[in-house]
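hiii so my PI (J.) wants the whole complex modelled not just the main chain, which honestly fair. so below is everything: two entries, each one labled with what it is. i double checked the lines twice but i was tired so who knows lol
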Amino acid sequence: MEPAQTPSPPYYAVIFSSVRTADDPDGYEATAQRMLELARSMPGFLGVESVRGADGFGITVSYWRSEEAIADWQRHAEHLEAQRLGRQRWYERFELRVCRVERAYGFGAPADRP
Amino acid sequence: MEPAQTPSPPYYAVIFSSVRTADDPDGYEATAQRMLELARSMPGFLGVESVRGADGFGITVSYWRSEEAIADWQRHAEHLEAQRLGRQRWYERFELRVCRVERAYGFGAPADRP
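here's the output for the full assembly
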């Protein structure tokens, strides 16, 4: 995984911080992959970063052009079903935060870095 | 690690997404621990979440009361020195994003969850 390449602010971020249960790792993995694929296909999607530690704690940050794009993603029928299963089966706990990215800078990699 | 317990929005988040070099793991760990301890002592600090995968990619999100609190943290002398070493030694690449948290919700754990 690499940091997402995003445009100049302002844009939006969804920070999803979660603790996995030990249940249904295969079902979780398949759905997580499918949700990434689906998010990438949504209008206004800018990028995603995701990492989970061995202790089950993980952070996924997705980046979006607008709050409307986030609302459309959160209401997508297939995503709603995944959210339902997440609460029922896969997550012991989570916090979801919708943010407006105000400023950003980076170091390394992108060849066009000033 | 657990999701941070934060107050009702608005508040601020710093999303730090990074790729570690393979260099100086002990120096990195000691400084990372010290920076967490120092951040926790800063006025306006609300919480922190951090996870790094086996591939070297990691996300740390710190939460703050205000943009001023973030600016004070970013300018702290000991933190500036850690930032310098980070670019020189520990990070192959990073992206840092300062955001305003607009809305938030959670699931599980905190006993007082509605």
